[in-house]
Each structure stands twice: as C-alpha cells, then as structure tokens.
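FIELD: query
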Amino acid sequence: MFQLNGDVLLNIIGIISTKAEGSPRNPELDLCALSLTCHYMRELCMPYLFGACTVMVNSCITLEKLPPSSVWPHIKNLRFSNTRHHPELRKIKSHRRIFNPKGPIQYTSISELGGLFNPLLLNEQLRSMPNLRSVYVHGDRDGVYDISLAALKAILSVPHLRDFKLVNHEIYPCLDV
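FIELD: result
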C-alpha cells in the first residue's frame, strides 16, 4: 500500500467513504478500520472521518463537549443538536403558536434563557476550525429551544463560515442587551 501514490490512496478512501444506494455496509466503519492500519492512512482518512461532526447539546456547551482539538482542522460541517427544551420558554410561548416565524421579538428578563451556547467559547473555538464551512443548530420539533443573540453573533462572526442554519429555535434577547 505504501507504494501507491497519495492521490491514488485518496481516491480509494473517497470510494470507500461513499455508500452505494441500498448497500448495507457502513462506510464509517470501513474508514475507521482503514485508518487504524498505520499513521499515514490515519492522516489521509481524517478529513473523511471528521468532516461532519455532531455535538449533542443537553446542557451548557463546554470545551469537553466539543470534538477534540486534534480533529478541528478536519471539521467542515458542525451540527449542534439541541436535545433540551426550556420549560420557561414553553410558559412564555403558551399564548401563541410556537412555530410562528413572523411573530414579534419578545424580550425577556429570564437570564437563564439562551445559556446553553456560551458565546465566548463558541467564538474562540469555531475560529480555531480552519476548514469549517457550515454550522447547523437544530432543535427537535417536540420542544421549545432557546439561543442567545450573543451566541448567534459569535457563530455568524466566524470569517470562513459559508453556511448557517437555525431550525426550531426561539430567540429571546435579554432586556439588558
């Protein structure tokens, strides 16, 4: 395998990483097995293994919840899946439909709203991911989720970010903003 050109190896890895339609095989497991063969193959497989990462958010984001810094150069798509809905937000929203995107912005004095995403941590860490192209912040349809304007500003201020999606979240700026 070492006698193969690096471009040929990348083509092989690219073929392994794509799943044929209707195929039961799992490309991630195949790539993981290939990456364990040697250090050189691991370096070649890293962009395919860690190109898309998901962070499950059920409490405040800390550095430990983010992927390890050794894979940051390989992350292209980062998804924050918010699994914790906020009961206070449900009370505030009880007087109108939850999924009304044209409703007026409602300010709140509840300081814990928007606390799941630490803007300082996000700003610093997302800027440290040089190949990051898209961030997707998603909440389940069953709950009501919150994100602060400061966290949105931190995400959107990443200069190399090209795509951002915010799904099923409510924005409640604090009164002191």
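FIELD: remark
The CA atoms of residues 61 and 118 lie 6 Å apart.
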